[in-house]
Specification:
Helix content: 55-70%
Shape: globular
Largest sheet: 3 strands, parallel
Structural class: mainly alpha
Number of helices: 4
Strand content: 5-15%
Radius of gyration: 13 Å
Order of helices and strands: EHHEHHE
Length: 81
């Protein structure tokens, strides 16, 4: 079976989103079940747009962006596009 990853899930995983533990648990369950993860080719742009919006709203600090983006790239490397 396969799971299609949504940009909102990735953003929640790399920020201080209160849903992060639940989403992380779901990713762990997919991994343990051997699920293949799929992400649309436009996913990096969708995530970058969401992160920019969070910075603009003051919910993510500029200093957090490097770590967030590195985590996004790592997560996307596990997905088929």
């Amino acid at each position: 079976m396969a799971a299609v990853v949504d940009a909102n899930l990735l953003v929640a995983l790399v920020t201080r989103d209160p849903r992060r533990p639940h989403i992380s648990a779901r990713f762990d369950a997919w991994d343990q079940a051997g699920e293949s993860l799929h992400a649309p080719a436009l996913m990096p742009y969708e995530v970058a747009n969401a992160l920019a919006g969070l910075v603009g709203a003051g919910l993510v600090k500029d200093a957090e962006l490097d770590d967030a983006w590195t985590a996004v790239v790592d997560l996307l490397s596990r997905c088929t596009r």
